[in-house]
């Protein structure tokens, strides 16, 4: 109440050297008093402390002191329940009930007041200290020129007599808004004109001799002029309505355009979410997913060397179930109250998911395709028979989910063709397999070979696929024997052949010469296994040009004859 009075009357207090910058002092005072209550909640029941929060301004501003005395010692109101028509000083009665309660209920509430006081006052202090809020820059803690202490004296002087609120502009906007809300399709200019006429009393005229308020501007004109103004308004009314209708039509078209953009954005967002779901759904059947046994989680975490890698692996495995399958029950937050969940907590949750997905009730509902997230009409209860129009709304944009899936897959393939993400890299296991684990499994190895592109010879990286036949445990460098798939379009590799291949740990899941990874069953069109030659051509920087790992050893493919000699 005192805060509102000071803000509303600031422009009338210039003679007391009080202006809008002075309100920064009031904010600092409020923060100081609220902090005191949060530290000592009993102060909220101390009448002297509470009633003197703004005492310094009562002593400084006589009009404020007069207002205070008026409210608490003079201003009276009639009591509706009393037939005698007696009056009471309402704020004095309220103050008495707060600090010297006589009713049993009021006395019992005092304990609860003491419990809530710290929470309420800390919240106020927190709001004032929030650097994202406009109020903060006016506090002395901000150390800005908006604070009273650092505000230049010249600025304080210039602001004397100015208002500290924007009540007038808010009143104008509020009046126009009221007209629009009440009459719906009223012209915006008409709504603003009615608001201005009412606020400025343009059409006011006294209705009795006792009414000493002067006439409004309109009734101050000569009668002939008033008649002319009305006739011009009547004559211009049809044209005004036509302009208004045209504006309404433009508004309708703009609204429809916004709806179309919104629908397209929703479809675009749905496509993005579905593409992500495709990757996660496909990951479940890859080595990247930990499933089957809860021990797989512990084993996988032990193989990862950093806390970041463990956290990321757990997060991705949980997202496989949440986004890939659409299982809401599998969701888990990554943080709570600004605390990041630990690897142990996420590992426990993933183990719970693995146990749950073994249950028949969940296993039978495991989706064969990733869920679509296309926008749909809000489902509501149906009373009677659903009309055809409602059914048509459901079919209008999203009845053909297969078409939606194909379009999303097309976007995904175009991105992968541009090098933006790859199903092959995303489906790789998080932990590097041991050499013995590779026997009988297929791997990819990146080899650079000269290719003629637009008449120029260019070094192009090519992922070559083959099956690991044997792992050499006695050699210094990790080496395996590989039966390579034929590559009909590459000279010298038209038929399958066996060679030895180095698989250095530093080359695992990299994009450089002799990098290696697990072969993944991915089809370009429908995510199923591809027939024929299984190769992926990519242009990457060769190791000779850049080697981020700093490995000085040069890995070369061991020839067939060399391996026989060994």
List keywords for this structure.
566 residues; alpha+beta; six-stranded antiparallel beta sheet; 47% helix; elongated
Helix content: 40-55%
What's the Cα radius of gyration?
A: 39 Å
State mean pLDDT (0 to 100 scale).
79
The count of strands amounts to: 10
Helix and strand element order: HHHHHEEHHHHHHHHEEHHHHHHEEEEEEH
Main beta sheet, described? 6 strands, antiparallel
Describe this structure in words.
The protein is an alpha+beta fold and 566 residues long. It contains 20 helices and ten strands. It has helices at 2-9, 23-39, 47-51, 55-60, 62-74, 90-99, 104-129, 153-159, 167-183, 188-199, 223-283, 295-303, 307-325, 343-356, 360-363, 388-396, 401-417, 423-426, 435-438, 560-565, and strands at residues 77-78, 87-88, 335-336, 339-340, 442-453, 456-472, 479-484, 497-502, 516-518, 536-538. The strands form three sheets. Strands 5, 6, 7, 8, 9 and 10 form a six-stranded antiparallel β-sheet that branches. Strands 1-2 form a two-stranded antiparallel sheet. Strands 3-4 form a two-stranded antiparallel ribbon. Helix 11 (223-283) packs across helix 17. The longest helix is centred in the middle third of the chain and has 61 residues, at 223-283. It is elongated, with a radius of gyration of 39 Å. The protein starts with a helix and ends with a helix.
In short:
This protein is α+β, with helices and mostly antiparallel strands. About 45% of the residues lie in helices and about 10% in strands. A hairpin with a 2-residue loop joins strand 5 and strand 6 (about 455-470).
